[in-house]
Amino acid sequence: MIRALVFDVFGTLVDWRSGIAREAARLLGPDPSLDAGAFADAWRRRYEPAMETVRSGARPFVDLDTLQAESLPRVLAEFGIADVPDAVRRDLVQAWHRLDAWPDVPDALRRLRTRHLLAPNSNGHVRLMVDLARRNGLIFDAILGAGHSRDYKPKPALYRDAVTALGFAPAETLMVAAHSADLAAAAHHGLSTAHIARPREHGPGGGETAPAGPVTYAARDLADLADQLGC
Amino acid sequence: MIRALVFDVFGTLVDWRSGIAREAARLLGPDPSLDAGAFADAWRRRYEPAMETVRSGARPFVDLDTLQAESLPRVLAEFGIADVPDAVRRDLVQAWHRLDAWPDVPDALRRLRTRHLLAPNSNGHVRLMVDLARRNGLIFDAILGAGHSRDYKPKPALYRDAVTALGFAPAETLMVAAHSADLAAAAHHGLSTAHIARPREHGPGGGETAPAGPVTYAARDLADLADQLGC
To answer: What are its E.C. numbers (chains A, B) (predicted)?
Structure first.
């Protein structure tokens, strides 16, 4: 029996690549040579090593806005983009707060919330999650994840703290993600797991279509998961 | 300009005394000699010293369910109530999850949420806040407070972490409470403050009708605060 759902957000609930590409094209001007999708991919590639500086204990917890701001200059340099004013750099970092949900998400979350507690368990901090929820009309019962645990997935604290905060048994708590590695870590801590196929997360043909390992549920999208849970 | 509101909950948003009295009367049987309001008061009086064991650093953080469960035997003894089965004791602790909001709260929170981010900043933990919100139809953007900061008000972390999590300046963050001491602590950390009169919090004639010190807003109830904020 599943009582609570905790969600990965970037890629699972929101389409970060299209959103960042749209905002980069808008904010960096109408340069026809900018491959905005590649720009989004390049920025996203710096995400894991940036988080690793915190996960490793090399520095105290800093939030994702800080990490994205730190990695942006190298992404701009990689694309040969110079002379970007500070205000535009800040606005680019804020673009991560202006991403759109995948089309199936708002209605499916409403259905799921009728019978379960819902919370993001993302590497995004509280304000980032709040802004994405408000933009897309998503209602959560709480915001868990990096802001709550002051660390980054897949560190154990993120999964353990999510279970503790919602107060059900680990197996009654369902980690929902489009990323098999996140689910494997959740399963290691006893959570139930649901894989959501997001075949276009990294652009056409770039995303997990099926889980790489055993999961409790495998779903085509979030509406399919709501069907499977009887919501 | 106020951008976010963070709320004390017990006494400010929910009527803990009537709720605990109702549940005590129900769960401890139809004993006409039980003064259920006095029972609620006695349990509540053990709240501050229990939290102090965490605030002082004498023990690691434990949540309010744990503290209430620990103090319950002495409250029962004080009232000469013996032989209470463990299941009833557990249900009494859960009574704190089944409190009703003051009548003005649900509609006023809906109005306030149209223009502000809202979060409890209570000594209650995440699941306790989630249960009270669900029971009363309250929508928050995040759950802050003891579960987020792993400590209890009025420790500085509760006020600082609430500001950090929502990402506005301290003065743009409004601490809302029916307790002047909570507001004085919030003001010390630069937050704006709103006092809500709850003259019946501790029963007829038992509650703050006005703030004991300077506040940014003083309101008759939460609807009055929404009026004053132009919501």
So the answer is: 3.8.1.2
